[in-house]
Design brief:
The protein is about 35% helix and about 25% strand. The relative contact order is 0.21. It is an alpha/beta fold and about 375 residues long. The protein starts with a helix and ends with a helix. The chain has an eight-stranded mixed beta sheet, with helices on both faces. Strands 10-12-8-13 form a four-stranded antiparallel beta sheet, with helices on one face. Strands 7-14 form a two-stranded antiparallel ribbon. It has two domains: about 260 residues, Aminopeptidase, CATH 3.40.630; about 110 residues, Alpha-Beta Plaits (2-Layer Sandwich), CATH 3.30.70. Helix 4 links the parallel strand 3 and strand 4. It is elongated, with a radius of gyration of 24 Å.
Length: about 375
Amino acid sequence: MPVLNRIAEFGPEMTAWRRHLHAHPELGFDCGETAAFIVARLREMGVDEIHEGIGRTGVVAIIEGQGGPGATIGLRADMDALPITETTGRDYASTVPGRMHACGHDGHVTMLMGAAKYLAETRRFSGRVALIFQPAEEDGGGGLAMVQDGMMERFAIGEVYGIHNSPNTPFGHFHTSPGALMAAVDTVWVRLTGRGGHGATPHDTIDPIPAAIGMIGALQTVVSRNLNPIEELVVSVTQVHAGTASNIIPEEAWFCATVRSFTPEVRELAKRRIHEIVEGHAAAYGVTAAIDYDWGYPPTVNHPAQAAFAAGVAREVSGEAAVVDDAPKEMGAEDFSYMLEARPGAYLFMGTGPGAGLHHPMFDFNDEAAPVGASFFARLVERALPL
């Protein structure tokens, strides 16, 4: 696998960076220490500009190519961790109880820092590279916050690219596709209020539990009976809460669902039908329903020309047989979608070999994969902005 030789040489340094980040996870927008670590390393590398506090704790660093003026390519890595208790037992495991890098964002940062070190040394490109270190991908929409802070206009970013690690995909293999790659994600909370009372006298109560059960069952008909079968939609109820004791009919019950889709039309259909089902069942059961419908991340939609270009770069790094450029859609979601709404670009997955899956307490990023991702980023810049 043709990892760039110079990047391979500082592979051990990249491992040290990644393990430091792994041991010190931060959540959401509270990525101040992570950003400070990144900024310190970037200063050591001699990048041309460092801009902090974009999207609250985001960082954008600029490297100028030796070929003079030209376009600006954005490369993005997410910084935040997850509220999970780590069980790997590694000597570099999380030092913060209840937090860990269970999605490999520590690896993503390391890959981009590795590319930054190489590009700052060699500068074999024209134009500029904007290194984007983003907070709050898991929750909060840090990508949107950075876009709303004017990042694209401020740094004249013309195209933007990102990678996500993919455990249990063959090591060094890449997959992507033009068009929709990942789904939009919306979240709905439904709180039902009835009249509580003694479990022995249900006729004196208005029980919210049967209402919740009826609603949850009926929500499955949104996909099975309201959606064209050739469209894609997931409606999954993920939380149900009610009651405190065996002999009490509760006053309230609530449940939560995640809704995944790819088009605005299906997204609107799901919202409308969920409201109709909940409100209709509430009237039938005599309860009051309060619905909080949160529009989340939009679908991650690759631009065809940029997806094809990125796949070609991946083939240079990993070989023809290791790249799939027509991968099926995934129902996961990504707030890199906001950056792709703002600028042309592409998102890819990179295999890291066998291991625990994403968001698992035994997950650990494969350090051997960092030079592969860094080589991809560096080669992409050299191909997109040739001397």
